[in-house]
Specification:
- With 134 residues, the protein is of the alpha+beta class.
- Helices cover 28% and strands 44% of the residues.
- Strands 1, 2, 3, 4, 5, 6 and 7 form a 7-stranded mixed beta sheet that branches.
- A hairpin with a 5-residue loop joins strand 4 and strand 5.
- The longest helix is centred in the middle third of the chain and has 15 residues.
- The radius of gyration is 14 Å and the shape is globular.
- 19% of the residues are buried.
């Protein structure tokens, strides 16, 4: 039987798989959002910080959605989700798909809310950081 934390993360990702990023009811008001790797690593606070961090992504790409390759409860407070990003370039028409976009999101949970998301663009790095194998 899945834990409450795993069920919450699965519900969030079910919306993201449909391309629905509108709900933030699951987020702690002081949520930390971190890009661990990629072109612009950084950290932001609050829902407004998540919006700031992803603004360029949503400006350049359309039809953004996630595909979940699997999830793993790391411990009582963390859930790792292996993802693929799918999107279509607004200007170029290029599609992000199998050519790249294999990442991971590490969700930190506290008191029924997500307190942090560590987003990895490199799935292998996420697994290595946690001492896991795919």
């Amino acid at each position: 039987m899945a834990s409450a934390n795993l069920n919450l993360v699965r519900a969030i990702l079910a919306a993201w798989e449909r391309g629905d990023f509108s709900s933030t009811a699951w987020a702690d008001p002081e949520i930390e959002y971190e890009w661990v790797d990629g072109l612009s690593p950084g950290s932001w606070r609050g829902v407004a910080g998540i919006e700031e961090a992803t603004r360029d992504l949503f400006t350049a790409w359309q039809g953004i959605r996630f595909e979940v390759d699997g999830d793993h409860e790391v411990d009582a407070e963390r859930v790792l989700v292996l993802t693929r990003i799918r999107a279509l370039g607004k200007a170029s028409g290029l599609e992000i798909g199998d050519m790249g976009g294999k990442g991971a999101n590490l969700f930190y949970l506290r008191s029924g809310k997500v307190s942090k998301i560590a987003a990895y663009f490199d799935r292998e790095r996420a697994l290595a950081d946690l001492g896991l194998k795919e």
